[in-house]
């Protein structure tokens, strides 16, 4: 192929032509050569300053002696010391003291939010408001009490779990086991609802009250306000774990109920459970999202 000088630019051509378009044989721009030179010089400097080349079973350490692995290990150790110090404060300080420490509370809320999401939200919901068969954790209706120590113990041993100290709760299946007839259960339903303030005829109240006294009061109390030590819920506050409709209450009495919650002692530390309690109390107060 014959090289020809392009009359317009003055550059020689490569001799290649496509459909009348001729390729120019232009020089590489100086900026490109400068870029290549700078990058090579920079690479040489980095090879000298930093760990770079493998040498048998080791490598060149570089003039600066930097080691990213050691740096990461130092940062991890520093973070672990900070976490250990926060955990020590949570372990040794009372809940009121923790709640007055803004910095510590920020740590508690961020950490407990993640703990709750990983372990509790699947049953109690992301907002801890519960659902059918799963209690709300942000109201005042607690089966074994809602103060810090009582909630901590419930978290530690669980409910009807395999923990040797677990809390036990079992409502008998009065209808299915033949203790009460269908008619008896239907009489009990309006009476149980009336404990929350609904009006019922006097004769229905009398019949339901007699059945309640003989079958239910030993756990729920003669006034229906429940017994914390037995895990028997209050029936006077219009809070219903399995629904408060006629059919819901009928099948609760007929088939019985048995809640279950795992014991968290083996999975969550004392500090984790304490942070969870504070987190739930804050959610209940509505002070934080």
Automatic annotation (TrEMBL):
Heme c 2 binds at residues 171, 216, 219-220. Pfam families: Cytochrome_CBB3, FixP_N. GO terms for cellular component: plasma membrane. GO terms for biological process: oxidative phosphorylation; proton transmembrane transport. Pathway: Energy metabolism; oxidative phosphorylation. Its cofactor is heme c. Its main location: membrane. It is found in: Cell inner membrane. GO terms for molecular function: electron transfer activity; heme binding; iron ion binding; oxidoreductase activity. Keywords: Cell inner membrane, Cell membrane, Electron transport, Heme, Hydrogen ion transport, Ion transport, Iron, Membrane, Metal-binding, Oxidoreductase, Repeat, Respiratory chain, Transmembrane, Transmembrane helix, Transport. Belongs to the CcoP / FixP family. Component of the cbb3-type cytochrome c oxidase. This is Cbb3-type cytochrome c oxidase subunit. It comes from Hyphomonas jannaschiana VP2.
């Amino acid at each position: 192929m014959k090289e020809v000088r392009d009359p317009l630019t003055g550059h020689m051509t490569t001799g290649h032509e496509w459909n009348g378009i001729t390729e120019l044989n232009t020089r590489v721009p100086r900026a490109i050569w400068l870029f290549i030179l700078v990058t090579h010089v920079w690479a040489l400097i980095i090879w000298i300053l930093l760990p770079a080349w493998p040498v048998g079973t080791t490598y060149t350490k570089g003039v600066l002696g930097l080691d990213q692995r050691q740096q990461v290990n130092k940062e991890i150790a520093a973070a672990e010391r900070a976490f250990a110090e926060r955990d020590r404060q949570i372990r040794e300080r009372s809940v009121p003291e923790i709640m007055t420490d803004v910095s510590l509370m920020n740590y508690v809320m961020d950490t407990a939010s993640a703990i709750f999401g990983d372990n509790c939200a699947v049953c109690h919901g992301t907002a801890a408001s519960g659902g059918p068969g799963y209690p709300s954790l942000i109201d005042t209706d607690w089966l074994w009490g809602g103060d810090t120590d009582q909630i901590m113990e419930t978290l530690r041993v669980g409910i009807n779990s395999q923990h040797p100290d677990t809390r036990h709760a079992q409502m008998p299946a009065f209808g299915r086991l033949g203790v009460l007839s269908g008619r008896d259960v239907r009489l009990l339903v309006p009476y149980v609802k009336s404990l929350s303030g609904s009006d019922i005829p006097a004769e229905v109240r009398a019949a339901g009250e007699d059945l309640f006294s003989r079958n239910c009061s030993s756990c729920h109390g003669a006034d229906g306000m429940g017994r914390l030590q037995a895990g028997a819920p209050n029936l006077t506050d219009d809070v219903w774990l399995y629904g408060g409709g006629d059919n819901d209450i009928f099948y609760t009495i007929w088939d019985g109920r048995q809640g279950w919650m795992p014991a968290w002692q083996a999975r969550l530390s004392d500090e984790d459970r304490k942070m969870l309690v504070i987190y739930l109390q804050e959610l209940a107060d509505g002070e934080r999202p």
